[in-house]
Amino acid sequence: MARDPRVVAELGRPETPDETAARKAESSRVYRSSQNTRNLVAALLVTLAVVAVIIFAVPRGTPPEREPIDVAAVAERAGNAEGRELIAPELSDDWIVNSAAVEDEGSSRAWTIVLAPADENQPGFLRASQGFDADEAWPARVLAGAAPVDTVTIGGVAWDRYELDPSRNGNLSVALAAPAGADTVLIYGTADDDALQEVAAAVAAEVTALREESE
Hints:
Blueprint: E1 7-8, E2 13-14, H1 17-57, H2 71-82, E3 95-105, E4 108-117, E5 125-131, H3 138-142, E6 150-154, E7 157-163, E8 174-180, E9 183-190, H4 193-214
């Protein structure tokens, strides 16, 4: 026996075929929407789990400290290649050697040692450069045209002393220059006078030796 159509309470009468089809379509839409939300949440949780694994499972640590530069060894190799003696000052632990290489400076090739304070809280740097066969104007070219203001004696060597304006001289504030045989040694950078004199004193014996070899 056929069943009477179900009376829908909201309508107070049985649904028409169109209303039944619309109700089922809406139910299907709501179901699919809920499934999409569940899938999105599940995908997000999986992504977060992968990120957590990467963060917590991958080993962490500080990078290893850079090996210190052996200035004497590098100077010997470079000197053999250039066919000349190169300065290799022995400095206190207050300094770190950032680089030591032959490069072009002020239109001349130069052996240059770049120094920085070991104390990270102390600003500044110094470059100790040995200009190969450099003429008298070489320091001025390196120092953006600066001229020496007087002469000071450090380690038995007479040095031309420069007072530089950082705004005009490429952020440089101090410099010393002295002839060393056929070459010229120039120490310059941003530092106080004590630091400048310390490096000059460390180089002085080698400047004297280069002078004596050229005589």
